[in-house]
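Chapter review: from sequence to fold.
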Amino acid sequence: MGLNVVGVNIRGFQDSKAALSERSPCGYVLSGIDSPYDSVLRGAVCDYIRAVETGLELVGSKPTRTVFYGSSFSGGLALMAAALLQSADFLPLRVPTFGWAEGRRKLVKAGSGQEINRYLAEHPEQTERVMTVLSYFDPINFAGLINCPTLVGLGIKDDIVPAETVYSIINHLDTALEVLEYPVSHSELPQECLWDDFEAHWLKFACRGIPPEFTARQG
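The token string follows.
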């Protein structure tokens, strides 16, 4: 009650499946991998940005605060969108992905990172081109533009978004920052329930405002 909430299905998912007519059979993230202009990641970031713009237009007047939130894939999108739009008042990110593209190749064991590794194992001659395109959408290249209080959660053990890749993003942030570590993420283990604490933590800040002791922190 009292909150304006906007969610978006980015191209290729649920009601927006038709917006990605040429999805790569090798994996979603490899769609349009021939160039950064055609990459589905470019489109996904644009979808997130347009959703924010539309939400603000629908609200009609400036809200008390604007929060960009995302988890995993959408966490990476939220960071990139916040960097480009400069309209977020608070940025909570739950295990944001795509950080440190080169490191992901060595560390991931599942998810989109595994799809990329499988593709490059079959097409090693494409490695330089693929990694160059992915580098355009590496959140570490956007992190320095973030100027709002930021909360980042990560799992110490995560086969899809390894902690090292999240820390690569964190290490490029230069803003008021809090980092919360949990034993696991992207797992079926009982410890996943501890993430309820993260959700309650950022929602409290979103509803009540960012406390002064938080904004005094610097990345």
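Two observations follow directly from the output. The radius of gyration is 17 Å. The helical segments are 40-59, 73-85, 101-107, 111-122, 127-135, 163-170, 195-208, 212-215.
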